[in-house]
Design a protein that fits this description.
about 220 residues, alpha/beta, 8-stranded mixed β-sheet, two-stranded antiparallel sheet, about 35% helix
């Protein structure tokens, strides 16, 4: 009798644990989905128009029907310098070679780290051997705030239908050390591989890391 009672008790405990696990899984999924939604993933990319380094107006709407990458940058940021030792340029070449539009955005306010204008903006691409499609200037920070860009770098991938498919960190090594590029999981490259294969992006959001975007009228830590 005692054995039967013990077995029955164990079965009840296992059933309760199973039910708790099943209840927890949807909650975990909901939390992850809420986090992604709060960061604009799967939402429609906000429309914007900015002037590029050459003084030409560029609108996101101009590239509807194409995959677009947005990259927030700041040449004085050590995290940006890490990626511009060659890794970011290589990814830019891969993407633009596949017909993807790559828009590098500088949201640094005048007088802050990373701000560029005039000839400095025009020769930015040459100085860094970059392969972006256009360098866009956002000195008021309007577009950066519109996309809730927090760091440099901070990345977005926008699908041909205008939906944000990836947002956040460039990779999974949140340091400013170039040697940490070796073996890192580049979320942007991985997302592009998923998109090219016609499947859902496996990691649609990752917490961004780097220097804070130097928005106007904001005191921010480096």
């Amino acid at each position: 009798m005692k054995r039967l009672f013990a077995a029955a008790s164990l079965s009840v405990l296992m059933l309760v644990a199973c039910q708790q696990q099943q209840a927890a899984e949807p909650a975990a999924r909901s939390a992850a989905e809420a986090m992604q939604a709060s960061n604009g993933v799967s939402g429609m990319a906000p429309a914007f128009t900015l002037v590029d380094a050459e003084g030409v107006q560029r609108s996101l709407a101009d590239y509807r029907g194409k995959t677009v990458i947005l990259e927030w940058s700041n040449e004085g940021c050590p995290y940006v310098k890490k990626h511009y030792t060659g890794a970011m340029q290589a990814l830019q070449r891969e993407a633009t070679g596949d017909g993807i539009v790559w828009l590098t955005i500088i949201s640094s306010a005048p007088g802050t780290q990373g701000f560029v204008e005039g000839e400095t903006a025009r020769n930015w691409k040459t100085r860094f051997n970059a392969s972006h499609t256009h360098l866009l200037l956002d000195p008021t920070g309007q577009v950066g705030r519109l996309y809730d860009a927090k760091t440099t770098p901070d990345m977005r991938i926008i699908g041909p239908d205008g939906r944000i498919l990836y947002a956040g960190a460039i990779d999974d090594r949140p340091t400013n050390k170039p040697e940490d590029l070796e073996g890192a999981n580049n979320y942007v490259r991985a997302a592009l591989t998923d998109i090219d294969a016609g499947r859902a992006v496996a990691t649609p959001y990752a917490v961004p890391y780097g220097c804070s975007v130097k928005y106007a009228d904001e005191e921010q830590p480096a």
